[in-house]
Structures are given as structure tokens and as C-alpha cells.
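Tutorial sheet, problem 5. The three components below are modelled jointly, 1013 residues in total.
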Amino acid sequence: MQPVLDIHGLKVLFRVGNTYIRAVEGVDITVGEGESVAIVGESGCGKSVTGLACMKLLAQQNAVYTAKKMTLQTKDGHVHDLLSESENGMLALRAEQIAMIFQDPSTFLNPVMTVGEQMDEVFLYHPGAVTQEDGKAAHKLSRDEAKRLSLEQFRRVGIPDPEMRYKQFPHELSGGLKQRILIAMATACKPRLLIADEPTTALDVTIQAQILDLITTLRRESGMSLLMITHDLGVVRAVAERCYVMYCGKIVEHGYVRDILEHPLHPYTKALIDTVPGLDDRVERFVQIPHNVPHPSQKPSGCFFSNRCAFCTGICQSAMPPLREPVPGRQTRCWFDKEELWEK
Amino acid sequence: MGEIILSTNELSVDFRIQNKVFGSPDILSAVSKVNLQIERGEIFGLVGESGCGKTTLANAILGFVKPTAGSVSFMGHTLTRTTSPKVWRQARRNMQMVFQDPYTSLDARMPVWQLVSEPLYINGERNEHVLRERAEELLLRVGLGRDDLDRHVFEFSGGQRQRIAIARALIGGAKFIVCDEPVSALDVSVHSQICNLLLDLQQEMELTYLFISHNLSLIKHITKHMAVMYLGTVLECGSTEEIFRSPECPYTQALISSILQLHPTADTQKIILRGEATSPVNAPLTCRFASRCSAACEKCRTAPLPPLTNIGNDHFTSCHLALQEGSHE
Amino acid sequence: MEKAKKIASSVGAACARAGIAIGRLFAKIWKNPKGRRGLIMVGIVVLAALLAPILTPYDLHEYNVTEGLQQPSFSHWLGTDKNGVDIMTQVLYGARISLIIGITTGISVTLLGAIMGIMSAYFGKVLSVTILNLINVLLVVPTLPLMMVLSNISSSYVMMILIFTLFGWCGTARMIRAQVLSIVNMNYVRAAELSGASKSYIMFRHIMPAVAHLLIMNCALSCAGFMVAEAGLSFIGLGDASVMSWGKILVAAERDAFTSGLWAWVLAPGVAIFFTVFGFMQVGYALEEIFNPRVKRKKTSSKDSRSATESADAIFASMEDLPLEDAKTLKEAYLKGETH
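Model answer (C-alpha cells):
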């Protein structure tokens, strides 16, 4: 079956002065229809860059990128090649087929416009996506129609008192409400794929629970696919079915979330899971991973995790292992099977 | 119960906001009548959402803001609104702070040895040799090396910077450290390094921490006592174990249920709160959580918030519901 | 006596340290291409001003009406004015007043601005409100008419410098204030306060080093600005009539140069002003690049984009994974090597 998003061999470099920073080093990602997929990794592992590359939003930032394949299947079954798509073509695809929400909602809202006006704009610019649903032909929407749709959309994402919020400016809203507004704008045209880049990192725990709940509900209602980018394995478990673990620009493990959390294959994933103790038992000391995440320009030779790995051997330091599939449906980028490492 | 190193007595901090030309100013009550008792040598957890006043409370304890009412008792000093700056300064000698963001808490223009030894320099030690020696001693203790003495901050990663900040907090021999979200700005894989370091230092040097965090699972593992704050008031406090075993206040229950856990065996019923925290401007005397509380009754909305009451097993709460149940028994 | 010696030695050490710092700064400016250009240009003007009596055989007040309005020649490179005074001599001596006014006002405005800016940001609410209101008042006072009125009292250049300073510090002060406010809120300042640091400690140890670069840059740029302002004011007839300045040469030239075809009379002071101001600006921009490396980095990255993309392909190729088969043999070989 044709996946909604199919990326193969994505590589991204950033230019700093006369040198290149290796941000993403060959990443394959697929997101199926209605599926919820997560990319987990720490800051600087290239997860956000991957998300931006899917939207083709890397052009401004001194980035050079290449990919073997980058396709997006639209609602009508047509498969777009994102690599060759023009900027105008991308404008049409964004919002209607593929939408994105970010960590810091306030930077994506215009401070001198009310949130209602900004919500209306989405409908005014993309009338087709809305009206075609009712079976009518696409036509230009009037201001009143747009406002009606906006209020409806505000209600859908659970904004209390939408009439009042409609007239407010971004600075009058809390972080959680702003994130709701952004989600409302992103999902207004019922996109096929929503990319969420750390949407709850800046929010409080109780608000985080609300937002994650909202995203899951919206996804169930509209059958939209989700690509969640996060550093928090807890968030992954709460929303995603399948997950990619990234480290230093490469995917180190891939599989179903439940499998990964219960039986990780890669030492990095295992270490990450072990550092978070369960709530049931009280620990005196935390399991720790030595050293720091290497700077992108100072990645170790061989396997990128070799300098922090408890199971590091000679071959790890000399060559980067390929992404192999020891168990069907699961991939790991390690020279050894888990039986050879910690289940000896 | 051990010796109390720090306690607050009905501590309140109000800010006046004059945004009308005429009329009385609005009162933002950031911290309202907080009573805490921290034992010597323990880690005391303070949890709450952003804007709940936990940072203001820490600032009031450290003397960055003057309390509007109430007092702070610390190692024999009683500090109130009218205490002279000189006494504040003397009392603060034994307090230090580890900040959340290690990028703004270190002056990028100074080499590491100057940064770490700054508290000694301020207190009159001018001999560079002595300063470097003491800085080196502390750096080794926090897991950095002699080679790092002459480097600058920008050469270090977030975790290493936080180690430098910890070394600076400890060099003057402070016994009470306020840790304001010390790991939340760092990479996930270095969280445990810094937590373990803080725990080791606490054991070795017999330190007392006031540990501010929104990460409840961390609080659960490292603290002995904790307090839950909501909009400037403490809703529940006491032994961490007791609070996690049977949270009384609906807010605490919601907080605990919103912890995202990794292992499916630990799954509990999720409580998703309605709405968001309102602002503490002209906050009522009633329970400030009542407007979001699903179990709130008439009394919660009208009667003033009761003082923290012991409901047994070193567990204090100011929730009407819990207190009513107690009286029925 | 002992104490005095100690103080003297510590003052000496401080001066020496300051001297070394200034020397290092100049070395840095010299390394920057813009900075070197600027330093050379300003250096030429300074030398010309200092060596004016040596460079020219004529005197500024030697009138010789019979030799008036001469075309440029070997004896008078730029010709003579109506009174027969050599124009080259005027330009050389004019450099003195332009430089004196530019540099003294630049420095005094920066100093006053820095003091007021820091005071308003870091020494309590009362001072802050007072200084901010003072700035608001000063910003709306029209400087030019005031200057004209005050030139009736005294037309000396000291007066001009005084007025420039009194009304020119507001911009600097506001810039410094904003910078200081952002530093005061930094956590490292709070950490120092926790250790018992006094206000003066924080000011000299944390705030001053952080704003010093802004001040130096601001100084270089305002020197240039005030030199232009001085020329303008001299041109409309303000300033000491007995002292030669570039603005005054232009006034005289405006009356007679065009009728007598003496183009050099107009051009020379104009070029001199441009040359000096340009030099100071270049030094200012160089300082900006030195203290704020981001400005410079942006420029280099836009250059030679072509060669960069070519090597990108090589990097992309190096990111390719090992084929699974090869990996298998590699691992087997490794395991074998280990057992032996």
C-alpha cells in the first residue's frame, strides 16, 4: 500500500562559514494512512530538521539537502514527488495536505492580528479544502462564512468561549490556548498528515495531557496521519503506534512503540528507557549514560554512540553498522543482537 | 523529625499592578500564606505549574523579593519585611542557588576558574593562586578536570555548564541550595548524570536542597518531603511517599495522573483537567483550584481556604473535601 | 607613606593593564581590513593636523591681497583665496579643529551617555524615572536654533562642544540602559548577589565589560557624526570666527570660488571631511565586526556558494550505509579476530 509520506535516504547539511554541519545522515521514514508515528531523539539529533524537510521548509537556512525519494500521497490518491515540487506547488500542499505545529506557538501567531482573523485567513486562502467536503464546488468564501467556520473549528479543538477568544490577540492567551489555536489552524483544512514538532514541551504537565488528548481525538475523528517529533518517550507512548529513534542524525532503532519500550534492541534506546525509573519503586540513584551528546561536527568515528555505549567493542569504533532487521518489522543500527549484549 | 534548617511562617508576596490611572492597584498575590518546614539534610520537593509562584517563593526565601507579610527563619535568623539588608546578606551566606538555564547563569566573559571562585572573590579572597586551587578542587568534585580551569563557557555543553554552576554554588560552603529546575533545560540523556551528581554531593557534604521541579516522577524518587503549589497557595504537603500513595487534593491527583510513564503495567486512569490556571490577580480567599476542580462543592467556592491540616502519617492538606471526609470518620 | 606607595603602584599597574588592553584592541583593528583602512585614513588626517606648520611654508594669517584668487600652481597646490592665503594651508590647519571637535565631543558624549545609562538602569527607581524624563525633554529641544541663540553669548568652539555633549548623550544613554537592563536580569548577576556582591562589584565586574564594546563602537561612530555637524554649523556661520575650520573654508568658497573657477577651493574641504568621516566610520564598523562576530560571519557564508555545494556531494556520499552483506562479513571477520 502506498504510504502517505514516504522518505528515503534524506540527508541534510548546514553550512556554517566554510564548513558543513552534518544534521541528517540518511533517514528513511514512512507514515501510513491514519497512522501515528513518532521520531524521538535529543536536541541536535536532526529530528526537527527531518520534520522541516518534509514540509520543504529548509530553503532559507543555509541548508543543502538530498533524498532518494520523497513522496506525499494526497487525499485523492495522487502521489506528489516533493523533491521536484515547485514552491507554488508546495504552497498548495501545505495546510491542505500536510500541516505542521511547533514547540513555541507564540512565534507562529501574528501579534498585531486577532487570533480570529488569523483563523479566518486559513479558510479564505484554502476555500477548496472546506467546501468540497459538503459536495459543493469550491468557491470564494465570504468573511461571515469564514468566521462561522472559524468558530466551529475553535469549538472542535476545545477552546472555551470561542466568541470571546475570536476577538482576542495572541498575547492575551495562555500558552496552552495558543497551542490549541495553532492546532485549530493546522487541522482546519483536514490535512492528510500533521507533523507535530515538540508541541507540548513548553507546556505544563496538566496542559500537556490536554493537548495530547486533543491531538489523539482529532486524529481518530478525521483519520489523519500524525508524525510526532519529541524528546520524551512518555509522549511517544501516549500518542504513537510506531516510532523511530534518532541519534546524531541517523535512525538507530525503529519498530512498534510497545516492542521498543519493552524490549529495546539498540543500547541507546535501552539506556534512554533505563534512565527513567518507574513510579512504583523508589530508586536511590538513576541509571546514567556517560558523557554528553556529541556536537554535530565532533561525532565519533564508527558507531556514533560508541563513545557512550556500555557495550562498545573494537568494531563499533571502526565502522558504522548498517540499519538491519534482526526481528521482522523491527530495525536496529547496532553490530550486535541484544542476546549478544545484555541478555547474555 | 530532624532539626529544621529553614521554615516559612505565613509567608506572602504580593505585587501591585497599577494599570489604571485612577483607583486602587490590582494585587497579584504570587505567594499566599505559605508555611513550609525543611529539615536539615533532606531534599524538599516543590511542585506546581508555571506561574504557580514556586519561583517567587524561592526568590522570597533567598531575599530577591521582600515578603509582603510573614517571615522566613533560616539557621537562627528571622527574616521579615523590615529586616535590614545587612542581616539578609549575612543570612544568605549559607544559601545558594542552581538555576534552570545554565546558559544565562554563567558570565560568558569569564574563564571557568573565575566563574567558580567568584563567591570567594566577592567575599574578599584576592589571591589568584588560592582561588584557582579551590576552583580546581570543586571542579574535580563535580566531575570536570584541571584542564577546564582556563576554558570559557561556550566550549561546554549544557550538562557541563550545569556542573560548573553547581561547583560555584558549593564553593562558599553553603549548606542550603535552592535547585530551580536544574535538569529541565538539559538533554534527556544527561538528566540522570546531573541528578546523580546532586544526590552524591548532598550525601557527601550534608546539604539541604529545596528542589523545584514540574517533573513529578523525579520529585518522587529523590525527595523526602514535598509541597504542591497552585496559584500561590500550598494545597498539599508532607511526606512524598504518603502523597504519592494517597493524594488527597484533586489537583495533586491530576498532577500524578498526568505523569507520562513508559511501562504499561503502571497505567492508571488519566484525569484530564478542564481549562487552565487563572491569573492570581485579585485572587479570592477561597480554594483557588475550585474553578477547575471536578469534585468542588459549594463550600470550596465560598468558604475560605482552610489552613494545612495534618490528616495523619505526616500528610497535610488544605482541601475541604479531604478534611470533611476526615471529620466524618 | 607606605600606603601612598601602594596606591601609586596599584594605579600604575591598572594603567599598564589598560594600556596593554588598548594596544591589543588596536592590533585587532589593524588585522581587520576595514579597520586597517580606517586607521590609515584617520592616521593621515591626524598627522596632517599635527604637522601642519612643517608641511606648509605659508601662514594662515598672512594676507596678501595681490596674490588673491590664484589658480592651483606649484607654489600654491590648491590655489589661494581672496586674501591670498594658501588654501592647502587652510585645509591642513582646518583638520585640527575638526578633529578636536569630533574626538572630544565623541568621547564626552559617550562617557556622559554611559554614566547616565548605567545610572538609570541600575541605581534605583527615582534616578531611573528622573533620567528617563530628562532624556524625553532633551530629545524634543531643537538643538540648532538653541545653538544659534547661544552663539550670541559665546561663539567659541568650547561652547559648541558643550552643547553637542549636553544634547547628544540621550541616544547613547538609552542604548546602554537597554543593554544594562538585560544584563541585570541575567542569572549570573543574581548568583553574584547571592554571594553578597555589592552594586559596584556587579557594575565593574559584570556590567562594564559587557557594555564596553558598545561604548567603543559608539564613540568611533559619533566622532564621525559630530565632525559633519561641526562643518554644517560653521557653514551657517556659527563657531569661532578667528579659528579656521573646514566648514569656514566652504563658506568663503561659496562666495567666490564659482565666479573665479577655483574648483579645488570647494573640493578640498569637502573631500577632507568625507575622507576623515569615512575613516572613522570604517574603524567603527571594524569594531562592530570584532565585538559582534555574527555580523561578519553572515557575509562570508554568502560568498563562494558554488565551491561549497560541490563538496557537499562528497559528504552525502560518505553518509551512505554499509551494504548488509559487507557488514555481515565484516562482523564475522571481527568475531574471528577476537577469538584468535
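Marking note: The CA atoms of residues 213 and 239 of chain A lie 8 Å apart. Full credit if you identified this.
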